[in-house]
User: Fold this.
Amino acid sequence: MSRYLAIFRTFARACLVRDMTFRANFLLECLTSLGWMSMNLAFYLLVFTFTPEIGAGSGWTKAPFFAFVGTGLIVNSIVQALFMPSAEELTEMVRTGGLDAVLVQPLDAQFLVSMHRVDFSSFANGLVGVGLVAWAVPRLEHAPGPIAWLVYPLTILCGVAILYGLVIMLAAATILMGRNQSLYDFWFYLTNFSRYPAEIYAGPWGGPLRAVCTFVIPILLVVNVPARVLARPLAGEAWWAVVTALLAACASLAVSRAVFQAALARYRSASS
Amino acid sequence: MDNSASRSKSESTPVIEVEGLAKEYRVHDKPEGLAASVRSLFHRTSRVVEALRGVDLRVGRGEFVALLGPNGAGKTTFLKLLSGIITPSRGTARVLGHVPWVRENEFRRRFALVMGQRNQLWWDLPAAESFRLHREIYRIEPSRFTRVRDELVDLLGVRQLVLQPVRELSLGERMKLELVAALLHEPEVLFLDEPTIGLDVVAQHTIHAFLRHVQAERRVTVMLTTHYMKDVAALCERVIVITHGDILYDGSLADIVDRFTTHKIVTLDLDEVPSPARVARYGFPCEVRGPRVVLRVDRGRIAEVLPDILRDEGVRDVSVEDVPLEEIVAELFRSTRTRPVGAPAGAAP
Assistant:
């Protein structure tokens, strides 16, 4: 484990050196990312000029909702910074045979495929997320207690693990298909469901969708569970949500691992 | 077991053992035209292509083996199987006692693969950064890492390049640094896939000298695929010719000349451009280039023919050579081309 951490540090260091080599590009990426996020925040502020809460009686008033958005930004920035750049590069690696070089190295291929690139500019969004949470928490109706503050990072890790499992399964699809240029699009469509409180998925269509996005592809647990831990009293149903998130994270890691190994066994490489 | 017995056993045990190794690919036929393309969305026809057909092989420690074959013969597929990148359809293989496609770390720490057409160094960073990463991945002790790295960069004369971003280097410089990276962990087996492709003559010579040195000093077992016969002549004692996924020839470089050629090349430099009648007198197929005449003389008749030629007062100089290796190998490839096998380029999906 310590060896993998050392190697990850070396990867991260190399990526940072590269980012610093192309400073203008790095700054532009930060600005683009922050700009897109600012537009989203402006949109949410606009929504709250018309309504006091998202969904009548849902409890997602302005402060809890911005704690939700901040939590989402933290989870997504971790995934975007640590895993997505490598996963996006995988499509090209499979198509050109670059994956060959990964498979001959004495390291876990999944680790190499998913963590060899770090996009430091994505952490900018995470910092804004932390800022949003810091702004929202003093304005919450129920201030989170010490246990909530302990459980909150754990559930964030669960959310990251669930998303990581999805990234790995998409990567496995890339290996099986030989080419999967819609990987990032598909990822975007999927994670879109995690950006809003689960309460909005109600009614004849919303109910089944909520069940699928909770128990089949547990995308709704990614942000909802940690945001609830922070914004609502931690009791009863909330604990079940935490346990569900933990189980979903474990299942996501285990299933994605099995799928990835099966995909590697079927890797065909590319002509030289 | 005493030390000498153990050493003797390790010397005699093959480093690479392959039996009945085969790789098949299912490839989809892509029909021509829009309508056919739309139809292929719902119904696809496919066929099985045999990239490698039951190959048997043993390679001993310290051998330098060339894998030759036309494009699509199965050379690279063979190297990919031996390095565990892909899994076979049938057959077995052991490299350093390991089944390659199980991909054990213990095995992967003991070999290296260099692909001439693919860059394995970090593109935007100096090679020194890739070397540092390599040290972590292969768990190379720092003092050993420094010693081996310095030795390798000095041998290839690239010390001044290790701090320059890889993207700014020439192809030859890049390949030299790829070789350094591949050898930092002192592998026992080295797979080289066209390492000199696209390189100028000077770079080729430097790499030849380097590989000869490394192989001799460290008793590394090397398998090399190449289309350049100069690589083979400079480096390899043993040659394996693969065509259509089968081994057509496995033997020494000297034997390939004896076995697949019936004649030698006799070149005469005359004092004037010869008349057609004078050329016809030699009685062998020949080519006239000004005052130079190139004869293709049956190997068995050289001793008989040469005295006659030397008696000709108009002959200023004579040389007798084997048929160039390129020509022999090209003829070998051509002779197998009539077989009805649809091998694709390498093993492309």
Remarks:
- Residues 2-265 of chain A form one domain.
- Residues 16 and 22 of chain A are 10 Å apart (CA to CA).
